[in-house]
């Protein structure tokens, strides 16, 4: 295996592919270190037809990601989040997390995880 092929499999930093994330919370629930924190809200999907429920018509909604944070001071680099994501929104980046002066700097949000 070449270095380029191995780059995506190196257990370094985890990258968020934001457009694939549905805020399903599976990665956060499956993480044994509880180092992933997600906030989202729901919005009406204007392109989806309303559906009939027992209480009448209901507009369809979808989750919108507001915040996705990995706290690298807690992460064990086990890769369970990468393996469990059914939408391929997480992948190994290959780069290592840089050192930080304090613990707060090790909590990377959406911008740092892109």
From TrEMBL:
One of its GO terms (molecular function) is oxidoreductase activity, acting on NAD(P)H. GO terms for cellular component: membrane. Coiled coil: none annotated. Residues 12-41, 66-95 form the 4Fe-4S ferredoxin-type domain. Gene3D superfamilies: 3.30.70.3270. This is 4Fe-4S ferredoxin-type domain-containing protein. PANTHER family: NADH DEHYDROGENASE UBIQUINONE IRON-SULFUR PROTEIN 8, MITOCHONDRIAL, NADH-QUINONE OXIDOREDUCTASE SUBUNIT I 2. It comes from Enemella evansiae. Keywords: 4Fe-4S, Cell membrane, Iron, Iron-sulfur, Membrane, Metal-binding, NAD, Quinone, Repeat, Translocase, Ubiquinone. It holds the Pfam family Fer4_4.
